[in-house]
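Margin note: ligand = iron/sulfur cluster.
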Amino acid sequence: MENTSVKEPMVHTGSTNPVNSAFASHFAKSMFLTVSGLVILSFVATRMFTHVDLNLYGYMVGTVVFLAGFFYRFISWGERPPTKILIKKGLKLLFRRSTLKTSVEHLATYRFIWNRGVYRWTQHLLIGWGCVLAILVTFPLVFGWMYFTMEESGYYTIVALGMNVMTVPADGIIAFLSYNALNISAIMVIAGVCMALYRRLKNMQARAEQTFMYDFMPLYLLLFVSITGLLLTFINVFLHGNGHYVMSLIHQYSVIVTLIYLPFGKLAHIPFRPVSVFARNYREHYGKESMKECKVCGTEFVSTEQSNDVINVLGQNDLEFDMKDGFNLAELCLPCRRKYRISKFSGFATHEVPIKEANQDAKG
Amino acid sequence: MTKRRLFLELENCIGCRSCLAACTQCGGHEQRNRNYVYDVNPLVNRQTMPLMCLHCVDPACARSCPAQAIQIHETGAVLSALTEKCIGCQNCTIACPYGIPKFDEEQNLMYKCDLCIDRTKDDIPPMCASVCPSNTLQWLTEEEIEEKQQRHDLGNDKWVTSMPYLEGETNVKINLPGILEGTTKLF
Ligand code: SF4
Ligand code: SF4
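Resulting structure:
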């Protein structure tokens, strides 16, 4: 993308905790703990590595590379002052009663995207849930957390984390859904990506702003992964497995490339998005605690906590908006802040005239 | 390619609100305007002045955004929130010293002036400057802005394009009304 983000001064947090000082950095620690966790889970789930599917080896490498990229991005992101505050307070407020509802609306049903348009919601639902479904199936298979055995002819046993979960008839509906889960998810993703591509080609609003690397690349990657995945099924069913090996390699590489790309481009919003739940909790909780009144008109416009946090974050970036009139600009409600600026331009105290701002929506 | 800037000559404003209407029509603006027009002294006279994002060189909005949703274009324009990144915390609206970013509760999304980046990246004036009938909003080269400065320079430090009367260095330049400068306009 041609845009460059704001350069941030790095804030290093020295740590005296003995566990933390065993590692050179947050990055090393997160990496070590996660990879150990993965190995232990796989060890247990595969009954001490006796049920490892080595065809899936490429994905393991891909996952580890993805984790490295993810932690690298996440940690440098989390060190920015505003992010740090939000994550810290968000974690504290995680167990509010509304968390579940907000999470479902933000992360599962995408209500806010519905409000941006039904078309965009549909494409996002198809792509989002297609990917989630694929991940939920693929990763447990890769790390051996889930596999199928056929102990009795005609019946599959689904083994999850080393325990037999259920036995289903091989031609039954559950079995059908299980081994077609990836095909279904591929079709969902392809449909969603096609909708998204169509919108990007036709919609003038989208065309004005999009760039290849940022907006098209992730769509092509997802399309490539889904099509090569579906071709695997096609080869098995119609070509008696001819070319299966080559295609499975191509598919593996496409997945690995996507995983490596994921923490950096547009797809990075997938791992970062849950923070929107933090943001909602933060606003709701502190909003109930105490609201800030505008220093000019007295309207309550933001929580006291957030107002202070913003002033603090700006201070860390050497931005001080303390006025001679005895307030910080972050203590004025938005209309008063705009009128205050007009007063600076004109020399007349517009913000002190108790009249609502008129006609700001260009509707005549 | 000459790089031009938005320049505001505030007292020319006649309050027609063409700039608001034009803003709604820009690519990526989804029919919503992101600029403002204010009555300076609404109970007494009809003088109006426009206000829009001044595209700060060190933007408070982007600094305060936990999601890095506000990007700065290479032209210096401070862009509207990236739809997939904005997490709806509204820090930016509290941080901006001029109260510019708008927030849509339903869509959980901030939106603000992006200086019509699809136009200005190719040095085409933004929508507001394209339609302004009174020369309040202008799209000028550095030299032209410099020249305006000379014409208004009274040698008494009263010339104020942008600094020090704003909260920081901005990419959009502004003049003070001539009446405050103690001069009548020489059009
Ligand atoms: S004027 Fe406000 S919205 Fe515009 S760049 Fe500066 S801080 Fe951001
Ligand atoms: S509302 Fe969106 S753009 Fe504004 S600070 Fe929060 S995340 Fe950033």
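The mean pLDDT of chain B is 86.
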